[in-house]
Amino acid sequence: MARKGSERLEATGDEPAGPTTAAPPADASDMVAAGPFSEAERAAVYRAIETRRDVRGEFLSRPVGDAVIARLLEAAHHAPSVGLMQPWNFIVIRDLGLRRRIRDVVARRNEEAAGMFSDQRAAAYQRLKLEGIVEAPVNICVTCDRTRGGKVVLGRTHQRDTDLLSAACAVQNLFLAARAEGIGAGWVSIFEPDDLRPILKLPEGVVPVAYLCLGHVEELFGRPELEARRWSKRLALEDLVFAEGWDRPWPFPTGGEGED
User: At 8, which helix (H) or strand (E)?
Assistant: First the structure.
């Protein structure tokens, strides 16, 4: 219910229904305490972040239950989004025939990708397993509806791609929840967005942001697989952080634990 003195905003995604000068204030009941997590809770969050891995070939055939999938999707749906546009949708794919069709598309695109590298790098590329579409018992396509919220969205007025960035936040939430559940997740990106449109019947304006393979795993790489296979390595964080601009390194604290 609209508060006195303000006009109700119609949920059309277009311009406000009437003139407004400010959003109504939040009720006190909407606020919750913002203190830090307990030490154990905080450690669990950082453990999920630091041990999350992109899984390709370690999937078990054991099915992933719908209750687990629902929890992962709930976590994804709680991602931050610019203007609260929530541009994501999720397509859960278990059908083997459908997954084989998508695997075939990725295989063709994978051949194209191999030709983009130098001879030595191409040989190394072809030895990598880059998807587990059929091996994983369930796939999820995370999409972005680029029309959601209408023509003008708070926070998106000058940066058009914040809808895609918001959808990527949902993907990260899903990854971290999967790690906490002991579910492996792999992100497949070797396809053109329009490759999936006819297969998944995507409407106009909806684009695939991430195609994920999900399944139970018994073990994970202790470091990123591409680092373990010497394709690349993690960059030093100290080389990536600047202070007050691009030309001055940020002074990292030394000696272990810093101030709160």
Answer: none
Backbone angles phi, psi at 135, to 5 degrees: -65, -40
Q: CB–CB of 177/72 below 8 Å? A: yes
Cα 89 to Cα 86: distance, rounded to the nearest angstrom: 9
Specify the pLDDT at position 259: 57
Left, alpha or beta for 205 (phi > 0: left; psi -120 to 50: alpha)? left
**What pLDDT shows up at residue 19?**
45
Tell me the per-residue pLDDT of 97-108, one tens digit each, with 9 for 90 and over.
Answer: 999 999 999 989
3 state DSSP class of 216: strand
Residue carrying structure tokens 């450690």? 43
Instruction: Point out the residues of the chain with pLDDT beneath 50.
Output: 1-20
CA 233 – CA 229 distance, rounded (Å): 9
Determine the pLDDT at residue 258. 52
Place of tokens 């950082």: 46
Q: Which residues have CB under 8 Å from 161's CB, separation 6+?
A: none
CA 74 to chain CA mean position, Å: 13
Structure tokens that stand for 10 in this block: 């119609």
The structural domains of the chain, ordered by start, are 54-220 (3.40.109.10)
- Bridge partner list, 138: 214
pLDDT at res. 44:
97
